[in-house]
Each structure stands twice: as structure tokens, then as C-alpha cells.
């Protein structure tokens, strides 16, 4: 059924947003809207310009008989910077201060509005990196990993601290946990969850001593795979030496005063790597 151009543009935009990282041929749109490829090409030029100007993402054009267009949902540097400012404003409240100097984040990772922005911002940092899977540890990191994986269009895997019969055979490691590195804990992953030789992005909600991130890195090595990056939402104050160094963090807790119930949060090293 032939459609009006205005209707075609709306439907085409929706289709692109719902199929990130998917190569879509002009023939598909041409047949769907009963329009000439030249008209579809003109429409896509409008969409591409709008996406770029509004910071919605990048619309790549691949020439040739097997080419087409591909939507990359990448945030630009200015939008990510504004998002981090909004996140700091949301978190800089004494009501979020927890015992031990931790910051309450559960409502953020449970709120679709914030979760989408967090996932898209983190994914934007790795759009030009080959990523096969996003990894996190069970509990609060799961919705973050799911959101990041959606925008990268890759699977996400969940590391657990206890195996279940439904997971089949697992691979487990012992790692040092706790801010004082005084505990030995175990984490494991189903052998079917991650292919050998994968390139893995690790994400989590919080880092203090770095034991959990370090443990996941060791687990990735056991699968003969490679960690291409590790990113957390917030980095807490830590006086000792963390067990992991190569990671990025959206935010950094600069100071906490439990007596005055005050907290000071700033942008983390994630901002330094923005292009």
C-alpha cells in the first residue's frame, strides 16, 4: 500500500529505532511503502540529518548491491555530558547516603527513564569496539547490562554466586572480596553462556575495592576470552589500592560526611574518554 511521505518518514524512523545495528536494504523500504528507491534515499537523508542534529544517533549508509542503512544509537559528547550533570543532580542528596559511605542507586537502575539513558551512554563509549557480550554479576548490575546490551545489540551474561541445576555445567573461580580484601568468595558462569574467544564488556553499578570487577575479569580469562572494557555507574571513596585499575566510571563520590549527612559527587573518568 502506497503511503504519504509524512507517514512514510514516521514509520521508517520507528523501524530504524527498533532495529539498531541492523543493516536494512533500501529494497525493504521500497517494497514496504511502494516507493522508488530514489524517494526512499531522499527520505533517509532527512532522517540522517535529523538524527545527527538531535543527537539521536548515527545513520550509516553502506553503498553497493548488498548495502543499505544501519542505525547506530550513539549519544554525542554534549548529550552525555548533560546526562551526567542530570545524574549528579539526582544523586547529590543526603537521603541517598547509606552506612559505609555507599550511595543508594537501586531506584535509578529500576527506573526505565534513567536506565535507558545509562545504558545508551555506556554503550556509546563502545560503539567502535568489537563487543560480543556484556557481562555483569547477579543483582543490581543486571538491568544495567541488559540496557547496554540492547544498544550494542549483543547478548548479556549474568555471573552468579551460586549455581542452579537449570544452568547446566558451570565454570567457577574464587576471588578476593570486600573493601579490605578479607573475604574469599566464589562466582560462576554457565559454560553455555559465553563462547570461548569472546570479547566481553563488563558493567556494574558500583565499585569500591574492585574485587567483583577483578573476579569477573578472571572469569573471562578462564573462558579464553578478552575483556574489552569495564564500566560502572559510580566509584566510591577508597583509601587503599583497588584490585583493578583499567575501568571507567560515570560518577565519582568525592566526599562523604556521615555526621552532617552530606555527599559530594562529580563526573568520573568516563567523561575524559568521550569523543
Automatic annotation (TrEMBL):
Residues 114-254 form the Phosphoribosyltransferase domain. GO terms for biological process: negative regulation of DNA-templated transcription; negative regulation of purine nucleobase metabolic process. Residues 4-73 form the Bacterial purine repressor N-terminal domain. Keywords: DNA-binding, Transcription, Transcription regulation. GO terms for molecular function: DNA binding. It holds the Pfam family Pribosyltran. Transmembrane segments: none annotated. InterPro entries: PRTase-like (IPR029057), PRTase_dom (IPR000836), Pur/Pyrimidine_PRTase (IPR050118), PuR_N (IPR015265), PurR_Bsub (IPR010078), WH-like_DNA-bd_sf (IPR036388), WH_DNA-bd_sf (IPR036390). Homodimer. Belongs to the purine/pyrimidine phosphoribosyltransferase family. PurR subfamily. This is Pur operon repressor.
Amino acid at each position: 500500500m502506497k503511503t504519504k511521505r509524512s507517514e512514510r518518514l514516521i514509520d521508517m524512523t520507528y523501524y530504524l529505532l527498533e532495529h539498531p545495528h541492523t543493516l536494512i536494504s533500501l529494497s525493504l523500504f521500497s517494497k514496504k511503502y511502494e516507493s522508488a528507491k530514489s524517494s526512499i534515499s531522499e527520505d533517509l537523508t532527512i532522517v540522517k540529518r535529523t538524527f545527527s542534529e538531535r543527537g539521536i544517533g548515527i545513520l550509516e549508509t553502506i553503498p553497493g548491491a548488498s548495502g543499505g542503512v544501519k542505525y547506530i544509537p550513539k549519544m554525542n559528547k554534549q548529550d552525555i555530558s548533560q546526562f551526567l550533570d542530570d545524574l549528579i543532580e539526582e544523586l547529590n542528596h543526603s537521603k541517598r547516603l547509606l552506612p559505609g559511605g555507599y550511595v543508594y542507586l537501586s531506584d535509578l537502575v529500576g527506573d526505565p527513564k534513567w536506565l535507558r539513558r545509562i545504558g545508551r551512554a555506556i554503550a556509546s563509549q563502545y560503539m567502535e569496539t568489537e563487543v560480543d557480550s556484556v557481562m555483569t554479576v547477579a543483582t543490581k548490575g543486571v538491568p544495567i547490562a541488559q540496557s547496554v546490551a540492547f544498544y550494542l545489540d549483543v547478548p548479556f551474561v549474568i555471573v552468579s554466586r551460586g549455581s542452579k541445576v537449570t544452568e547446566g555445567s558451570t565454570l567457577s573461580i574464587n576471588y578476593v572480596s570486600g573493601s579490605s580484601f578479607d573475604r574469599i568468595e566464589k562466582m560462576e558462569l554457565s559454560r553455555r553462556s559465553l563462547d570461548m574467544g569472546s570479547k566481553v564488556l563488563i558493567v556494574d553499578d558500583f565499585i569500591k575495592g574492585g574485587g567483583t570487577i577483578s573476579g569477573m575479569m578472571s572469569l573471562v580469562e578462564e573462558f579464553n576470552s578478552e575483556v574489552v572494557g569495564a564500566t560502572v555507574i559510580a566509584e566510591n571513596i577508597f583509601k587503599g589500592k583497588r584490585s583493578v585499575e583499567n575501568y571507567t566510571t560515570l560518577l565519582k563520590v568525592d566526599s562523604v560526611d556521615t555526621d552532617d549527612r552530606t555527599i559530594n559527587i562529580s563526573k568520573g573518568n568516563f567523561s575524559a574518554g568521550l569523543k
